[in-house]
Amino acid sequence: MSIWERMSKVDRRIIYLLLSLVVIIPIVFRIPSTIAVSESAQMAYDAVDRLPAGTPIIFSTDFDPASMPELRPMMTAVLRHAFKKKLKVIMMGHWPTGIPLSTIILEEVAQEFKAEYGVDYINIGYRPGAGLVMIQMGREIRSVFDIDIQGNPLDSLPMMRQVHNYSDIGLIACFEAGAMGDIWVIYAWGRFGVNIIMGTTAVVTPDAYPYLAARQIEGLIGGMAGAAAYEKLVEHPDKAMIRMSSQAWAHILIIVFIIIGNIGYFMMRRAERIKKRGTV
Amino acid sequence: MRRQIPLILTFLTGIAIFIAFFIPHKPFNEVQDILLDWAIIIAGFALLLGIHSLLRKHITHIKKKDGGWGYSLILTFFFVGVFTVGIFSAIQYKGYSLTPGSLLYFVYDYMVIPLSATMFALLAFFIASAAYRAFRARRLNATLLLIAAVVVMLGRVPIMENAFFNFLSRFSDWFMFIPQMAAKRGILIGVALGAFAMSLRIILGIERTYLQ
User: Fold this and answer.
1) Cα(B121)–Cα(A76) distance, rounded to whole angstroms?
2) Rounded to whole angstroms, how far apart are CA atoms A117 and A108?
3) What pLDDT does residue A171 have?
4) What contacts A191, CB < 8 A, 6 or more positions away?
5) What is the DSSP annotation of B88-145?
6) CA angle A21, A233, A108 (to 5 degrees)
7) CB atoms A99 and B169 under 8 Å
8) Strands (E), A36-120
9) B132 and A33 in contact by Cβ < 8 A?
10) Residue A280: pLDDT above 70?
11) B166 at the A interface (CB within 8 A)?
């Protein structure tokens, strides 16, 4: 096998090994990365920052453990911002397997800010129906969420006494690993005009750009880069900034392999042409 | 009549929701609220139907010993196991089965989270390997795709702050906001038109496959 052929057909185990190293090393040695704050992340930050203290904000957990490494850091960062701004957090979700995750994240951040359950934040959990739940919440949140995740009636929680529907909500921050964000835009924004910011996995991010450009959402936190940007904006560097370093070096490695593969491919093609001319 | 009644119900429901969207006032909004409450209940029951369909398929596989019946056995075993644990936890914690400390929470924390995260993490390796093999500048369109991919990949993760990476970052933003979004909008408009046409076909009773 010639050198060019070897470059063109690198064993996938070598790729896997090198990729593992570039992912693990920055995490183990906590190598920070350079973070450029994108315009869309800045818009999301500004949308939260504009809300006056005491405004209720809905957090929608529309992801599960598979997307946790990307979406947990951004949800944590936005929650920190919300608690710092003394906003009233209402946690909910449309993915049942995401609710325990959001409960962990919420409790962790609430403890950090010494927030009180029922006064500063509540967790209303999951109801089936997605779009239907969103429409009903526009009329009366209690018509679908009559009790919170601990079984307390919503009226028994001080922060919910004046909160009935979207007109009492300042912003919806939805964290998406699928198409639930589209449904939030269609029903909550389209029908009730409530402001939305979206946090998405990198795979979902391109789907959300049309909403951002049409100002149907106020901001977009895209993938790990968006999460790291938000951590930078709230001045609380955390997991996303470290993981971005892994992601950056993984991208570089993939690009290097693409270049190596293409060099091998072109040199082999050139050698074949020369061989053909020789035989002719 | 067995066909006509569902068709009439579909027509009336579709029209009622359609009118309520444009006239959100009495009595249309009240009708809509009732219908939406029903739909949420039906969505809950749809889950039961899904479970029934899934189990029937896999139990048949096991009985017939079709190819890969072992996987069906594992699925059925774990379904029954997690279901039992869920019911037990729900009784123990008065309906809140995923309360920290419950057996179901243990399953979630030590099985669901690591397994889901592992499955998704494996994608990184497959994508890296696939990118290396697929991104070859064979033709003009493949070359354009390759250049766009490399620029966006570098632009999303600036490893250092200098003029070159700042330019890449700006170019990547431009690429996502203009050419990428143009294609995405085209797809979205196409999907929306398709959904609209399909909805009309269902409401008017032209599309009847859901009756079969």
Assistant:
1) 21
2) 12
3) 97
4) A135, A138, B21
5) HHHHHTTT-TTSTTSHHHHHIIIIIHHHHHHHHHHHHHHHHHHHHHH----SHHHHHH
6) 75
7) no
8) 56-62, 88-93
9) no
10) no
11) yes
Stretches where chain B sits below pLDDT 50 are: none
Q: B132–A139: do the CB atoms touch at under 8 Å?
A: no
**pLDDT score of B137:** 87
ipTM of this complex prediction, to 2 decimal places:
0.77
d(CA A193, CA A170): 11
Q: Which of A55, A49, A46, A107 is nearest to A76 (CA)?
A: A107
pLDDT of amino acid B130: 92
**Residue whose C-alpha is closest to residue B127's, from B91, B157, B104, B153:** B153
Question: Does the beta carbon of A4 lie under 8 angstroms from any beta carbon of chain B?
Answer: no
Given CA atoms B95, B98, B99, B105 in this order, what sign does their dihedral have? positive
- Please tell me whether residue A58 adopts helix, strand or coil conformation: strand
Asked if residue A279 has pLDDT above 80, the reply is: no
Q: Which of A134, A72, A129 is nearest to A98 (CA)?
A: A72
Q: What is the DSSP letter of B57?
A: H
Is residue A198 within a helix (H) or strand (E), and if so which, with residue range?
strand A196-200
A129 touches chain B (CB under 8 A): yes
